[in-house]
Amino acid sequence: MKNLLCAALHPGSANSIGPVIKELLKSEDYHIKTLAYGPATQIFSRLNIPFEIPRLINVSALSCVIDESQPNLILTGTSDKDKENPEVLEQNLIYCAKNKVTTLAIADIWKSYGSVFSEQNDKFKYYPNLVAVMNEHARITMTNEGYPQETIRVTGNPHFDEVIKINKEFKNEDRTKIRSELNIKDDAYVIMFASQPIELAYGKDSSNPKYLGYTEKDILKDVVESINKMHHIPQKLTLFIKVHPREKQKELEDIIPNSKYPVIFNQECPPIKATLASDMVISAFSTMLYESTLLDKPSVSYQPGLIGEDQLLTNSWDVTIPIYQKKDLIPTIEKIINDLDYQQSIKEKRKSFSVEENATQNVLKLIYQQIS
């Protein structure tokens, strides 16, 4: 029997390795030990994956975990540090495993991975033996950043397998059922704001060197204010706020100005279901914008006053719709709702966005190759 040790901290990481773990659990040939910390516990619970919460996730504690479990391979997500998580489960586990155990990390989104794999003076401090990436573009991006080409494998993100499958099977009655569960009227035009913990990760002002020029609260306030000023907009409009697992819902509720349209907050609804209940999705650079694109929803990336590079690569690919100034919110949203030619144009652009299918099986094959 082969032993596998799996670990995730952030939701995106848990979503990416979750489908692989579920498949491995079906076999009697593997003993799977899964570590979850923070928000990943919610994802693994939803996926019915048994997990343990380590009491400590520092290097010393995780070295003991590796010694005790004797894994043949370690499978992780790609979480990075923020204000609440100065120690990252996956990073420390990969660091402890160097020269001992083969490590495989699954990248869940297109981004620069310096904050995931590197420390100030050590580019490869948390770099695993292998990285599974979403597509060829991601492989090229990592190679250009100086990561060894031979360590990068194009597999796709296993989480997107579920997105693609659901999109193929989804029917109108499914949307009606989801909306009913969320207390949203079936005939409403729903704009979803997919929030993300930007302030937590990047700070709320320039005193933080990672500051982006905006926070999730700035975005939400601008979106609500703009919608309230629109003239060419459906009367039965609903604003649906999808709260990220790492956020505090009350903080978002407190900063919202009065709205003449219904505003619904929800933190528990799975992202795919939330997207399917919506007609348009607005976020900054959340993974949910990739999901909404795959689910054929108009997807807007709003990053007011952006400092530095745009982290959402689909903006540069002309797949998602980038907005960088508040004054452009109203005309863009109204155009998405009312302009039929524009609707068709952005729909065709969404079709150009593709990901590797059968990603779960691709990652499994990679694992079997390493431990056979």
Write the layout of secondary structure elements.
Layout: E1 2-8, H1 11-25, E2 30-36, H2 40-46, H3 59-69, E3 73-76, H4 89-97, E4 102-106, H5 114-117, E5 130-133, H6 136-144, E6 152-154, H7 158-169, H8 172-181, E7 189-194, H9 198-202, H10 216-229, E8 237-242, H11 249-255, E9 263-266, H12 271-276, E10 280-283, H13 288-294, E11 299-302, H14 313-316, E12 321-323, H15 329-338, H16 340-351, H17 359-371
Parallel strand pairs: 1-2, 1-3, 3-4, 4-5, 5-6, 7-8, 7-10, 8-9, 10-11, 11-12
Q: What would your notes on this structure say?
A:
With 372 residues, the chain is α/β, with parallel strands linked by helices. The chain has 2 domains: 2-157 and 356-371, Rossmann fold; 161-351, CDP-glycerol glycerophosphotransferase, C-terminal domain (Rossmann fold, 3-Layer(aba) Sandwich), CATH 3.40.50.12580. The chain has 17 helices and 12 strands. It has helices at residues 11-25, 40-46, 59-69, 89-97, 114-117, 136-144, 158-169, 172-181, 198-202, 216-229, 249-255, 271-276, 288-294, 313-316, 329-338, 340-351, 359-371; strands spanning 2-8, 30-36, 73-76, 102-106, 130-133, 152-154, 189-194, 237-242, 263-266, 280-283, 299-302, 321-323. The protein has a 6-stranded parallel beta sheet with strand order 2-1-3-4-5-6, with helices on both faces. It has a 6-stranded parallel beta sheet with strand order 9-8-7-10-11-12, sandwiched between helices. Strand 10, helix 13 and strand 11 (299-302) form a beta-alpha-beta unit. Helix 1 (11-25) runs parallel beside helix 2 (40-46), helix 3 (59-69) packs across helix 4 (89-97) and helix 7 (158-169) packs antiparallel against helix 17 (359-371). The longest helix is centred in the N-terminal third of the chain and has 15 residues, at 11-25. 44% of the residues are buried. The model has no long low-confidence stretch (mean pLDDT 93).
